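[agent] plan:
  1. take the single chain provided in the ticket
  2. run structure prediction with default settings
  3. attach structure tokens to the ticket
  4. add a short note for the reviewer (M.T.)
[agent] executing step 1
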Amino acid sequence: MTVTTYQVQGMTCGHCVSSVKTAVGAVPGVTGVEVDLQAGSVTTTGTATAQAVSRAIADAGYEIVSADDAVGRSLPMASGGGGCCCS
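[agent] step 2 finished; step 3 output follows
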């Protein structure tokens, strides 16, 4: 089981949190997801790859800034797009 925290840009409201949580929760291997709007972070637990989670966040329209796994390594991330539908 791996814990990974992603820094995400573009989340500005509760709808953003819900969108990201739903998208990431649907990734095979994700067993838990926490989204912190104020910190701009998404923390996952499970066996999903960082690339799969990053892709889900980007597909939901948010930009990945960085990701750090439980042992503190910085993982390479692909950037996403636009951001919140409210802005």
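[agent] step 4 note for reviewer: The chain has one domain: 2-74.
[agent] ticket updated
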